[in-house]
Amino acid sequence: MSSRSKDKVAAAIRKFFKSPDKKDRGQKDKDHQQQQQQQQPQLHGASGGGAEQQVGPGPDGHSLLHPATLAVAGAIVPSGSGSSSHNSVNKASTGSPMRRLRCAVAPSNNSVVNVPVPKPLDTTIRSRRLMKELKEIERLQHSRSEPYFTVELVNDNLYEWHARLYRVDPDSPLAEDLAELNIPFILLHLVFPDNFPFAPPFMRVVEPRIEKGFVMEGGAICMELLTPRGWASAYTVEAVLMQFAASLTKGQGRVSRKPKSNKEFTRRTAEEAFRSLVKTHEKYGWVTPALNDG
Fold first, then answer.
1. How many Cα atoms within 13 Å fall on the side-chain side of residue 151?
2. Beta 210-211 vs 202-207: how paired, if at all?
3. Active site (annotated) includes residue 103
4. Inter-axis angle of helices 237-250 and 125-143, to 10 degrees?
5. Of the listed 205, 206, 222, 240, which one is catalytic?
6. DSSP state for residue 221 in the 8-state scheme
7. Dihedral angle at the C-alpha atoms of 94, 100, 104, 107, nearest 10 degrees?
C-alpha cells in the first residue's frame, strides 16, 4: 500500500472514532453563531422602537423578552432564562427577611390602639399660689393659741375653701350678737377661679345670716376688693378676710334674727346678687353708701 493510501485510511479511522462530545460542541458553536446573527437585527429594532421585543421560545416553550427590554424595566435577565427567572426574582424580593420584618412591624390602618394617658400634675400658677398660702395660714394657726381665722379645704378641693372668722371688733354690735347667740364664728365660702390670682375669688357668708355690714342676699359681699376692677394679684386670702371683718364693723352688721327676705340663702342666690352688684357699680362707680343702707 502506498503512503498516500495509508494517509487516507488513517484519516478515515480518526474521523470514525472522533468523540461525540466534540461533535456536539462544534454543532453548538455553529448554532450559537447563527443565533447571534439572528439577534443583531432585533437588538437594533428594540433600541430604536422602545417596545418590548420577544426573542423566541425558551427551553420550556414560553416566550422570552429581549434583554434590552428587561434592562429598561430595571432588571437584566439572561436571554436563556424564562418566566421561571422572573418568578425567582419576585420570590427573592418579596420573601426577603427585611420585607417580612416590615410587614410584621407595620401597623394596620384599621387597628386603633387606645393608650391611656396619665393625667399631668397640676402645676399651674393658681395651684402653686394656693398651696403657698395654705401652708402659710396653717403655720399661723399653729403659732397662735387663739387664731383670728382658720381655713380648710372643701372635700379636699384645693380651689374651694371654708374659712372660719373667729374675731370681729369686740366693741361692735355684731360681736355682742355673736356672744349672745353663742355663735363661735362666721363661716365663709371661697371659690378660686382658673385665672386666680389674676382674678378675685368669689366669697360669701354661709352662716349665720347677717344683715347690713355690706352683706347682701344669699350672703354675697359688697366689697370692691372682690371685683375684677378692685382686685390685685398681690392680695392674699388673709388680707381679704381681714378686710371683710373691718367692713362688717363699718357697715354696722348684725345677726339677722328674723330674715326680711323670703329668698333662699344659697350660693346661687349670692352669685346672682353679686353679678347685679358688679354691673351697678361699673355703671355708677364705687361710692360708700350711708350706714343706714348697710
1. 24
2. unpaired
3. no
4. 70
5. 222
6. B
7. -50
pLDDT digits 0-9 by tens, 81-137: 444 444 444 444 455 555 554 554 445 555 555 666 655 545 589 999 999 999 999
pLDDT digit string (tens) for 29-64? 666 666 666 655 544 444 444 444 444 555 444 444
Q: Which residue has the cell 347677717?
A: 210
The runs of H, that is alpha helices, within the chain are: 3-16, 20-49, 67-72, 83-94, 97-105, 125-143, 173-180, 237-250, 267-284
Q: Which three cell numbers stand for residue 188?
A: 365663709
Angle at 234 between CA 230 and CA 240, to 5 degrees: 65
**Contact (Cβ atoms closer than 8 angstroms) between residue 189 and residue 162:** yes
The C-alpha cell at 270 is 349670692
With cell 428594540, the residue in question is 46
The reported pTM is 0.56
Nearest alpha-carbon partner for 205 in 259, 293, 247, 267: 267
State the Cα–Cα distance between residues 107 and 131, nearest whole angstrom.
45
3-state helix, strand, coil in the chain (%, to 5): 45, 15, 40
